[in-house]
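Narrative of activities, Objective 1.

The group set out to show that a structural description can be obtained from nothing but a protein's sequence at a throughput compatible with the screening campaign. Below is one input-output pair from the validation batch, recorded exactly as produced.
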Amino acid sequence: MRFMKDSEKDQLKRLVKACMLEISKLKMDLKRCREVNPDCSKVEDLEHKIEKNKSKIQELETFLNDKDKSIENLKNSLNAKESYIEDLEEIKTYFEALTAKPKKDLTSFQSQVYLLLPSDKSNTHKMHIFIKKVGFKELSYDNMFNILRNLERKGYFKSYQVDEETIWEKIQK
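Output recorded for this entry:
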């Protein structure tokens, strides 16, 4: 093996010293990084908190959506109940008309028909359908026409001829 020249040896020594110096610098940088590392843990803690908050936000959004669905269901239920109440109010009106004391100079049946019929102008056919819907299912068309004529004669209805059709108007008494 050949011996190294002194100059090569010196050169190697300088190179080793340079490497040792570089290692020393790296150790110092490592030490500084370790000192700075607690700040890195704070960042990690903050990131962890952000993830937790995102999770909470997601839960709250889900909860809010569930509440919105619940509110919509309650609104639908409320609308159904209001419709039911309107139907009951209509039935109450019919019941009161059917059980009311008869008007003077009218029979009980004529009074019931008078009180049940709407105030809108209408033809005999529509009034007959309405009365049958309310409850007088056996009442014939001819009998309905006769009842309306009797009510007209007693001043409770007016009739008009429009294109061969009789239109009836209720007179409030």
